[in-house]
Design a protein that fits this description.
The complex is a heterodimer of chains A (about 160) and B (about 150). By secondary structure, chain A is of the alpha/beta class. Helices cover about 25% and strands about 25% of the residues of chain A. Chain B has about 150 residues and is an alpha/beta fold. Chain B is elongated. Classes of the chains: A alpha/beta (about 160), B alpha/beta (about 150). The interface between A and B is large, with 49 and 53 residues.
Chain lengths: ~160, ~150
């Protein structure tokens, strides 16, 4: 049997390649790091011909919100059921006046908001309008929900 | 002048263990925070903010993300799988998605179309996009916004 050679007391492993590799990995991950903002969704009902759902016992209360745009696409005016509204805060107040803060039958559940927007209106205004009609944010981060059923009118022609 | 005790050791052994520990912890951190979702979250799209846009509790079913964005020339493009496409041309790509869903035994109506619209695009173009999707049989839509954490 071959005799073993005596081993040294301490084996020195060369760490340099591993450290090189690890630092390259860190550099890669640091450069590809991307800050991701929290995003949320709004469910929207889109008219696709006649509604396929079963007809409900009580027809929904439809609130028509019309938003017009100036030539630059900025919001020129809002009206709710034909009457002018001063801004999104006032729109929210009017919606609260219709559905109340206590959701229940005859309130928010049975109310639909139909958004009628000019073609050139900047999309940010649509999100602002949806925010105004769908809830009231409270100071503690909670939200009192208002209208959940939101839809658009059929798209208009480009001017 | 004080005299040196000795010439010192010929080789200094630095203990690398804490540095390697820390480095591996950094790697782990970066690996976990790595975001592969470039295809569904394009930096170019400036989402409108909303205090009510809180993230959904459950993931959307069969999500298809369409990002609407105004390019440098002011033309509205749809970013789909990292590719910028004109709004009227998106139909062909949606047809592919529809075929994939049908092959998997699903219906297009069961898929969720996530619309990540830039706040600067025209509403009419977003509506045109939605109309094209509807014509392909998609029915579920969600409009995505950035959560505004202001109290």
């Amino acid at each position: 049997m071959a005799k073993r050679e005596s081993l040294p007391d301490k084996i020195n492993i060369d760490m340099t390649p591993m450290i090189d590799c690890v630092f390259q990995l860190i550099t890669f991950f640091m450069l590809t790091l991307k800050t991701v903002f929290v995003e949320g969704d709004f469910d929207i009902r889109m008219p696709l011909g006649p509604s396929g759902g079963a007809p409900s016992e009580t027809p929904p209360v439809i609130v028509r919100v019309k938003m017009s745009a100036d030539p630059n696409g900025e919001l020129a005016g809002i009206s709710m059921n034909g009457s002018p509204v001063g801004g999104f805060d006032q729109l929210r107040q009017k919606i609260v006046g219709i559905v109340g803060l206590n959701s229940g039958p005859g309130g928010a559940e049975n109310t639909e908001v139909e958004l009628d927007c000019d073609y050139g209106l900047k999309y940010v205004n649509v999100v602002n309008a949806i925010t105004a009609v769908s809830g009231v944010p409270q100071g503690d981060g909670a939200v009192v929900e208002l209208v959940k059923k939101i839809k658009f009118t059929a798209p208009k022609k480009r001017k | 002048m004080a005299r040196r005790e000795s010439d010192g050791p010929t080789k200094t052994d630095i203990d690398m263990t804490p540095m390697i520990d820390m480095t591996f912890q950094l790697i782990t951190f970066f690996m976990f925070t790595l975001n592969f979702s470039n295809a569904v979250q394009d930096d170019r799209v400036q989402l409108p903010t909303s205090q009510l846009a809180k993230p959904a509790d459950a993931a959307a079913e069969d999500p298809i993300t369409l990002q609407v964005w105004p390019d440098k020339d002011g033309q509205t493009k749809v970013i789909y799988n990292g590719e910028a496409i004109r709004v009227p041309d998106i139909g062909g790509y949606l047809e592919q998605e529809k075929r994939i869903l049908v092959d998997a035994g699903r219906k297009p109506a069961e898929a969720t179309l996530i619309v990540r619209g830039d706040g600067r695009v025209m509403t009419g173009e977003v509506q045109d996009l939605i109309k094209i999707c509807q014509e392909k049989g998609f029915e579920r839509f969600v409009l995505r916004a950035q959560y505004d954490e202001r109290k």
